[in-house]
Specification:
The chain has 13 helices and 9 strands. It is α+β, with helices and mostly antiparallel strands. The protein is flat, with a radius of gyration of 26 Å.
């Protein structure tokens, strides 16, 4: 891969990421607006029914009186009408409630929250998100055709993009579920966790401020899940657009290109530099994305690789390496042998904060792993046990930056904390993972660990 294709590949990725960030910025505003509306509904609920700023679960299960029921049904039917007009569909759960003769206070509050989330997930998330993915696909498709044409000569006319392909790709379950399915699974999990928080609050006699704080923590997790899904879907759509451009312009082979830095996943490292047939490309197998937050891409392959490609050191600064150098070769020559990455100290010990070894790390034994899964997996929403492990690995590997702080204790334990997602992880001196969870006190908890362990001989 020469400089021309590396530059073009980087430009395409940057364009897609820029589009994603612009959309996610607006989606974050929508999440914040939903939180404000839900908090308002909660405070109104307490104002109407609470005594001494507390409501028991039994009181919450009282039925609405005639006037309250009439007001509730009028509001719900108006929402159903709006949903049919703007979304084209209505949550069956809400329609069923609209014909019930008796509704509890709890159900009424739950319905208000459900209405707010229906709008958030159906319009702000799925509808606008799908439109943005279509824009990204079209942009990446024509950018790729232009790059190929500029490199080897333009065809008489660009191929006309078949928009039906884009609609089918958005519906395609390349990673088990399609974009829409994953969105509504996230929404279902959010509703479940908010219900859980409400029930706990009523049982424990918490005030509305405490309930709002519980809601805020649940929302924080869901915003992160939304970004992770959108990032993965954006990469999928961008790479599928590139693949379609290869097909339409007669490109027969492509080269898999991983980023040459210490954040690159092990699976992408293995594919780096390999050449595959275009007609045998499969997303998640030999075509990006191979995992959430995948940063790999592809370029057309025309034969022998010449020139140079770009690598990055731990500070993000670039330097040239041979075009035919694979990730494994780069790591051996520029990281291990030259000892210029900060991974291996002069004493030869692998104990830096962003050591690549964590990519393959596990918990000390299966019992410890299961204990942590049972205790902390629910903090991360609807993810698998392997995804939980992957979060720990990636955080332990990630270099320190504005979002990620960390240190190594004198006993050799690696402490890392990601502020944006409230993830706290510890790596043991023997290379195993000690723990991963979301601390209740968030950043204050991490600062407390700094005081306790940064200069201590033992942990």
């Amino acid at each position: 891969m020469d400089k021309y294709w590396q530059k073009r590949a980087e430009q395409r990725l940057e364009a897609a990421e820029k589009d994603l960030k612009e959309y996610y910025k607006e989606l974050t505003k929508a999440f914040n607006q939903a939180k404000r509306e839900i908090n308002a509904a909660v405070y109104e609920f307490y104002l109407k029914y609470a005594e001494n700023n507390k409501i028991t679960l039994a009181e919450a299960q009282n039925y609405l009186n005639f006037a309250e029921l009439k007001e509730f049904k009028g509001s719900l039917q108006e929402f159903i009408r709006m949903a049919k007009e703007s979304i084209g569909k209505v949550n069956p759960e809400l329609e069923n409630l609209s014909i019930k003769a008796r509704i509890t206070r709890y159900q009424a509050l739950e319905t208000q929250i459900n209405e707010i989330l229906e709008k958030l997930y159906a319009i702000d998330y799925e509808k606008y998100g799908s439109e943005k993915l279509k824009d990204i696909y079209q942009d990446q498709y024509y950018r790729t055709l232009f790059d190929i044409g500029q490199y080897r000569g333009f065809n008489q006319a660009f191929a006309q993009l078949n928009t039906n392909i884009i609609d089918e790709l958005i519906k395609y379950p390349f990673n088990g579920l399609n974009f829409s399915d994953r969105i509504w699974r996230q929404k279902g999990d959010l509703i479940y966790k908010l219900r859980e928080a409400m029930t706990t609050s009523f049982i424990q006699g918490k005030n509305p401020k405490e309930l709002a704080e519980s809601f805020a923590k649940v929302f924080q997790t869901k915003e992160y899940e939304a970004y992770r899904l959108l990032h993965t879907e954006t990469t999928f759509m961008a790479e599928q657009a590139t693949l379609q451009a290869y097909k339409d312009d007669g490109i027969e082979q492509y080269e898999f290109v991983a980023t040459l830095d210490l954040r690159t996943s092990e699976i992408c490292q293995e594919h780096d530099g390999k050449v595959y047939d275009v007609d045998k490309a499969v997303a998640g197998v030999n075509m990006p994305p191979l995992h959430p937050f995948c940063r790999s891409t592809t370029v057309p392959y025309f034969g022998e690789k010449e020139g140079t490609r770009v690598a990055r050191n731990e500070d993000g600064k670039t330097y040239p390496v041979p075009a035919n150098m694979t990730y494994e070769q780069w790591y051996k020559e520029y990281v291990v042998n030259k000892n210029n990455s900060g991974i291996i100290n002069t004493d030869g010990k692998n104990n830096a904060v962003d050591d690549k070894k964590w990519f393959t790390s596990t918990f000390y034994n299966n019992r410890k792993y299961k204990e942590h899964i049972e205790k902390h997996l629910k903090e991360y929403g609807n993810i698998t046990e392997e995804e939980y492990l992957d979060i720990a690995r990636k955080l332990l590997v990630e270099p320190l930056n504005d979002d990620v702080e960390g240190f190594i204790s004198k006993a050799g334990f690696v402490f890392k904390y990601r502020k944006s997602t409230n993830d706290f992880v510890i790596g043991r001196p023997d290379g195993h993972i000690s723990t991963l969870f979301k601390p209740v006190d968030e950043y204050e908890y991490y600062l407390d660990q700094v005081k306790k362990f940064k200069d201590k001989e033992e942990r």
